[in-house]
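Comment thread on ticket #2218

A.B. wrote:
> Attaching the input chain for the structure job we discussed in standup.
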Amino acid sequence: MSRLAGPLADVALVVVSYGSSGLLAANLPRTVGDSGVRVVVVDSFSGTAERAAVTRLAAEHGWDLLAPDVNTGFGGGSNLGAVHALAKGARVLVLLNPDAWTDPDGLAALADAARAPGPVLVAPRVLRPDGRVYSRGLTYLSLRDGTMSGRRRSSDDVPWLSGACLALGADLWTALGGFDEDYFLYWEDVDLSWRAQRIGARLDVVEDAHVVHDEGGTQESRGRAKSETYYRYDIRNRMLFARKNLGPAAVRRWRRTLLSAARAVALRGGRRQFVEGVAPWRGVARGVVEALGR
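C.D. wrote:
> Ran it. Output below, let me know if you need it in another format.
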């Protein structure tokens, strides 16, 4: 595979795009710099103009472009990109959202951590565009009720790493089988972290690496409001995770708090959106129905 020598010789950077050509143009060049690292862009189809724009960018910068004719979702697109990268000889995968960026030193630090002895799933610190801390790395999921927190609150809390940026070795990726594509969007990183720990992998936050994440840059949203897709899948996939990974008692507990959890998700976009259009209502309703219906 190697088109370069040094700390990034065995690394592939995998980015899944959906209507994100502008973000790719802004964020990928400063992430890669002149390192020559292999970049694999998976462009989930969102329209002919967008496909043409991403194709031009890939040709200009020498990125490997995978162009499925459907929207694969985040997990499905990441899996496609990883299969391609591993076939080209990558031994370390760095997965990065198109609305996030780092630099070659950050990539090298993440890759070095992913090469540590024993299976390890790695993430950086995540900053907001204004420099404030968005995430120090680990988020905790309560197995009692499915709520999230930035700190461990009880022994029932388990850590997970955000899919905004993840790094791992080829062997761990293969052992996990990649992302579970049933999620389509959201919660697939929670699921991957859970399964990684179940097979003995560590979760590690690299303090020497940071990623700037403009959350929501890939969503069709206005201001604080989230997209209909966000509401649907965030609410739906909470219960999907419980059914896939926890026992019947936990599934019943999580179901009892489904409506309060859905309300909390909905309010992340503020109250004003619910008087301005039907899309948020539709997304929340669909998420609740699908969470209950399987």
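A.B. wrote:
> Thanks. Noting for the ticket: The CA atoms of residues 45 and 51 lie 7 Å apart.
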